[in-house]
Amino acid sequence: MQNILSVQSLTKKFDDLTAVNNISFNVEAGSIFAFLGPNGAGKSTTIKMLTTVLKPTSGEISINGFNALKEQDKARASFGIVFQDHSLDEELTGYENVVYHAVIYKVPKKERAERIQKALEIVGLWDRREDYVKKYSGGMKRRLEIARALVHYPKILFLDEPTVGLDPQTRRSIWDHIRDLNKERKMTIFLTTHYMEEAEAIADQIAIIDHGKIVESGTVEEIKKRTESESLEEAFLKLTGRHIRDENNGPSNKTGMRGRGRRSRH
Amino acid sequence: MIEVIYILCLRQLKHYWRSKARLIGSLGQPLLFLVAFGYGIGPMYTTARGGGNYIDFLVPGIVAMSILFTAVFSGLEVIWDRQFGFLKETLVAPISRTEIMIGKTLGGAVIAMIQGLIVLSLSYVLGFRIPSLSSLGLGLIFMFLIAIFFSGLGLTIASKMKDLHGFQLIINFLIMPIFFLSGALFPLENLPPAIYFISRLDPLTYGVDGLRGAIAGMSTFGVYNDLAVIGALSVLVCAIGTVLFSEIEA
Ligand SMILES: Nc1ncnc2c1ncn2[C@@H]1O[C@H](COP(=O)(O)OP(=O)(O)O)[C@@H](O)[C@H]1O
Ligand SMILES: [Mg+2]
């Protein structure tokens, strides 16, 4: 199989903190790839570099055959992203947010209305589409972000902790839909999650990152075998230790609005 | 391309229209200036000049003022977008940074134009009259160029600002001097040479002078010189903004 995403010696330093430390990996086209790790391990920083939001300190990224550092627009057209923290315009309605997205991603005009409706129905927000996003609950905002990312049909979809804070029904319907996209559209999925059972159920390939370095990778079975574990969760704890991490454990914490971001308890 | 620019503008217009407090608040200041200065300083102006109507002098200045503030604020809105996370959504889209810059500059400029037009209409009540349709046309061009320049300037500054801490600094040490030294409120001729020199470096000076030449028939530098200066500066600031915008991180 051919790789849709290829990462070589990727590093990101924030002043004296090395958030991502020389990682390399490949993601096969059409697969579901889970990127796991404790809080502050460097998952979001990696995703931000892969999606051109942050400039790497060093390293190479190739997405869909495009150099993500040099051919940014072509790389950008290839992926969709659901960020870990807020990225909605609260002063617009849910529907307007999705329309904005459809236009800037150049979804053909005649398909727009239909795709938007489908995406909003999938996440159960069609009836609330005319409400301002500031009136939405946290879970509804999350669902809207996911719906938005589905409107343009990306080759690879990045999901940074997509289901944190959602009830089991919504989580189930979102994963079902993601699996459908993966099967029917051959959309590659790159996700991070804190729910090991979700990763275990859905992922073809897994990489575990800790302190900015990949400590283990392979299929669920391979990882369980190598760590002599019964479950992925057990393997994860063996690999990353049991002490509790703070998301902002670096020496140079970004304060302020970061605290508004969706946090997750590990 | 056109549709992307349109949707970026539309979003800003919706923000503007939906925030009634901001809309009303931003009309209060120019109105206060028109009434307070118009009636307060008017008689002194007429006496000192041996004739002439201060309202005719003042209205173009106040219109320019409302455009200046509205345009700069719209540009700086990008800092809010960054803090609330929405900037990422626009930046990861497969659109060129030039499109983003044009869309956002135009959006801010359109809002500033609307604001300027409202102030201009209100000045009618105070007795201000524009001589002809063609002078109105030329006036609109100046208003638009002032709007473009300052919306672009706001964006350029915002692309370099990480948070809101520098905001007050920009307003107090850049925008306020630009306003007060532009000749919006008083003629520049009698200023001490040092201050006069600074006001000649102020981009708004040419915007105000041109607008005043167009709609009130009073210009110091000549309307076409003003047009050339403010036009060239608008192009320049947008070019610089586009370069800086291409390096922005969310
Ligand atoms: N903009 C930033 N400036 C400084 N440090 C940062 C910044 N973003 C993230 N970090 C730090 O980098 C490390 C990795 O963060 P992150 O990638 O968000 O972790 P994860 O998503 O795995 O929880 C943390 O120590 C975090 O504090
Ligand atoms: Mg994270």
Describe, in short, the structure shown.
Chain A is an alpha/beta fold and 266 residues long. Chain A is built from nine helices and ten strands.
Topology:
The complex is a heterodimer of chains A (266) and B (250).
Chain A: E1 3-14, E2 17-28, E3 32-36, H1 43-50, E4 58-63, E5 66-67, H2 72-78, E6 79-82, H3 94-104, H4 109-122, H5 138-151, E7 156-160, H6 168-184, E8 188-192, H7 196-202, E9 205-210, E10 213-218, H8 220-227, H9 232-240
Parallel strand pairs in A: 3-8, 3-9, 6-7, 7-8
Antiparallel strand pairs in A: 1-2, 1-4, 4-5, 9-10
Helix pairs in contact in A: 3-4, 3-5, 4-5, 8-9
Chain B: H1 2-18, H2 20-49, H3 54-83, H4 86-91, H5 97-125, H6 133-160, H7 167-180, H8 193-201, H9 203-216, H10 223-245
Helix pairs in contact in B: 1-5, 2-3, 2-5, 3-5, 3-6, 3-9, 5-6, 5-10, 6-9, 6-10, 9-10
The complex binds adenosine-5'-diphosphate (ADP) and magnesium ion (MG).
Plain-language structure description:
The complex is a heterodimer of chains A (266) and B (250). With 266 residues, chain A is α/β, with parallel strands linked by helices. Chain A is 36% helix and 24% strand. Chain A has helices spanning 43-50, 72-78, 94-104, 109-122, 138-151, 168-184, 196-202, 220-227, 232-240, and strands at residues 3-14, 17-28, 32-36, 58-63, 66-67, 79-82, 156-160, 188-192, 205-210, 213-218. In chain A, the strands form 2 sheets. In chain A, strands 6-7-8-3-9-10 form a 6-stranded mixed beta sheet, with helices on both faces. In chain A, strands 2-1-4-5 form a 4-stranded antiparallel beta sheet, with helices on one face. In chain A, helix 3 (94-104) runs parallel beside helix 5 (138-151). The model of chain A is unreliable at 250-266 (pLDDT under 50). Chain B is mainly α and 250 residues long. Chain B has one domain. Chain B has 10 helices and no strands. The mean pLDDT of chain B is 93. Chains A and B meet through helix 2 and helix 3 of A and helix 1 and helix 4 of B. The complex binds adenosine-5'-diphosphate and magnesium ion. Magnesium ion binds next to helix 1 of chain A.
